[in-house]
Amino acid sequence: MLSGYVYVRSQNRTQWRRRWLELIFSKLFFYESDDDVKPLGTLDMLHLQVAGTKYGDMVSANHAFKISSKTFSIVVACETSYSLKRWVHVLEKATLTANQDGY
Question: What CA–CA distances, in Å, run from 11 to 1, 16, 74, 75?
Fold first, then answer.
């Protein structure tokens, strides 16, 4: 499990939005703030890919990575390189576990 503030941008938007993310087992919850009870959205880590960003992703943020599937992608930017490494490591592990277990 992992939680914290990050900046999120979907493939259809140009603006970054600060969000509280919370990973519980194989579910990633997006909240507007850490005080919120109801999530803005949820991603099931099954069939998702977590990868670093590249030049073609048009990312104007440091410490960013991408979460994607066949139908969508979002870019997540962290405030530090440590946060980036931590999020990527934990999300990759959750994705691998979800795909192995078939959740």
Answer: 26, 11, 6, 8
Q: How far apart are CA 28 and CA 62, in angstroms?
A: 22
Q: Helix, strand or coil for residue 64? A: strand
Stated pTM of the model: 0.84
Q: Are the C-beta atoms of 29 and 42 separated by less than 8 Å?
A: yes
Distance CA 78, CA 62 (A): 8
pLDDT tens digit sequence for 91-102: 999 988 877 765
CA 56/CA 58 separation, integer angstroms: 5
CA angle 62, 33, 37 (to 5 degrees): 140
3-class state of residue 62 by DSSP:
coil
